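hey
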């Protein structure tokens, strides 16, 4: 990154703690992003995984998921449909749905038969219990309260920006913990960042 771009990231990250209003977030893992190749599916799965780990299941309507994640309802419906189907070259889907005829909400679970679904539930459970192991996936916190778009139908770039910010913020914090040098920047090229997130440039 150029010095100017690094400074812009550094200064924008400082606004997170200064933001007024209720904090709203969702977590994601790079492994899920690599598997689904979809920002939308990754964040939807992160939202569901958190509630599965916390409550043992997830009950919510597509509109409620869309409202929390700042997506259109159609984007959520399409994302859920794909998550409930096996990914390419796989036998098991990442999500399974239980019948809930008495309610408009959906009862969803991470699929424990899917290796990534199993590791994802382990990771969220350990995060909630403030534990960590070698098998834990790294979870990045997307600050949804910073979402600033007039329409949820035009949210693609906003979500990408917040996911990128989550990655950079986490790397800066980890760097400060691991070294004595308390730098508030993270040096990576645009192509390196794009590669981490599986995005084309």
């Amino acid at each position: 990154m150029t010095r100017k771009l690094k400074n812009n990231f550094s200064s924008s990250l400082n606004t997170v703690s200064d933001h007024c209003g209720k904090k709203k977030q969702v977590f994601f893992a790079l492994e899920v992003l690599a598997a689904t190749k979809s920002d939308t599916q990754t964040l939807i799965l992160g939202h569901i995984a958190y509630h599965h780990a916390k409550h043992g299941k997830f009950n919510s309507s597509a509109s409620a998921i869309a409202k929390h994640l700042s997506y259109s309802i159609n984007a959520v419906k399409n994302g859920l449909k794909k998550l409930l189907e096996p990914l390419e070259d796989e036998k098991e889907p990442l999500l399974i749905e239980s019948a809930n005829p008495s309610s408009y909400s959906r009862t969803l679970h991470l699929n424990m038969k899917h290796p990534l679904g199993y590791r994802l539930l382990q990771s969220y459970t350990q995060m909630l219990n403030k534990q960590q192991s070698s098998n834990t996936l790294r979870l990045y916190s997307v600050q949804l309260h910073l979402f600033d778009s007039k329409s949820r139908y035009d949210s693609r770039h906003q979500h990408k920006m917040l996911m990128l910010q989550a990655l950079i913020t986490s790397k800066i914090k980890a760097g400060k913990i691991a070294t004595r040098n308390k730098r508030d920047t993270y040096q990576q090229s645009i192509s390196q960042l794009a590669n981490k997130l599986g995005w084309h440039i």
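Residues 1-20 have pLDDT under 50 and may be disordered. The beta strands are 25-29, 58-60, 95-98, 106-110, 139-143.
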